[in-house]
Amino acid sequence: MRAAWKIFCLSAVVLAATLGLAHLLVPDVVPVGYAEEPQPSWAILTAFALRAVALTAAWVAIITLSLLVGTKLYRMAFGPGTR
User: What pTM was computed for the model?
Assistant: First the structure.
């Protein structure tokens, strides 16, 4: 269980860091190639990479937290002393 909490905390920290970096480095850039105004390609690629890392970290955090909650509920329902 301790390793799962470490993974959850690490993914939460990575998510916060990438969202902060995206806000600082490319605040008004959408990670899509077509926009109303031309945008530099480095900004689009940076925004895309940061968004990909943030979404991956968010999914890892969601999956880890759901596994932790599921394990806790399973232990409460079917743990020792329930029979």
Answer: 0.82
Question: In whole angstroms, what is the distance from residue 37 CA to residue 72 CA?
Answer: 50
Would you say the C-alpha torsion 53, 62, 4, 21 has a positive or negative sign? positive
Helix (H, G, I), strand (E, B) or coil at 37: coil
Choose among 41, 50, 49: nearest CA to 22: 50
12-37 residue pLDDT tens: 999 999 999 999 999 888 767 566 77
Residue linked to tokens 């806790």: 72
Mean pLDDT of the chain: 89
Q: How far is CA 7 from CA 1, 24, 32, 60, 71, in A?
A: 10, 26, 30, 8, 15
Contacts of 21 (CB under 8 A, 6+ apart): 50
**What's the token pair of residue 52?**
């990909």
